[in-house]
Amino acid sequence: MNRFISFSNLTWLNAILGLVLVFWQEISGAIPFEIQVAYFVGMIALTGIPHGALDHIVAKVNDTISGKKFQFTHFLFKYLVAILFYATCWVFFPAFSLLLFLVISAWHFGEIDIPNSKKEWLWNINRFLWGCFVLLLILLTHQKETEIILLRITSNSAVVISSWNYLCIEKSYVLSGLGSLVFMLSFFSHFNNSKQFSVLTLLNLIAILVIGVYLPLLPSFALYFGGWHAIRSFEMIFTFLKSQQNHKQMDAIGMWRRTMPMTILAALFFVVTSFLWSIAGITSDPLPVIFIFLSVITLPHLDVMNQMIKNSK
Looking at the whole model, is its pTM more than 0.90? Predict the structure, then answer.
């Protein structure tokens, strides 16, 4: 990217776009559902799916650093097995699968939002708590929309219903408690580590989260996931790959272009699935299925990113 386009500029641009959606909602009373879907699909297509479409390249570098021989077919096999295994869990153990998704998502969001530092154990706790805070903030500020999805993907699990009702009742205490814990741990950790926070980056993240509270669930999730998390992941991947000999000449636009083959495959999967959904005469909301799809591809992606972050040290 040139000096006029940076990862930070993109996240600020997304914050502004989110603010435009809020103003639209305030002026017209609601954002048309078609616009919500278009925004969601656009963010997922431009950054959400692509930020995981480099996993095979990152995994190859990870293996090289570890002194292992990378085999694409072996990588692809493990990746698909993880996806199929998790998808099967969703069919037979939906409540457990939901819990697993929330846990791994919380950790993954936290490790991207809070960078590595020297005192690892304290920051690891902080990362996980921060990821929990972000997830619960998005879900609990969109209670009705979230509840419909949770009940559908867990087949009206009694455990999920009781847990969700408790979180909704204690929402203010849960969010304020988690927020306070994260603040205190960040304060103590900050003075024990050389890693410094960027004030502008922190303000950018806070702005995106606050804006998301005033948007419907679909654009709120897309704003954080595609407009912040995926772009910050791209930044970490770009920095990591640029540190390696074979990728020193790569620019950010070139890196994004290299995501296209896998992104197009994912897009084709969505098109085929949508076609089958249509000809099968299914009239129910496909949104829960989309979230399950995102969850099953998160599991192997998390492993690749976690290894990359360890190697980045």
Answer: no
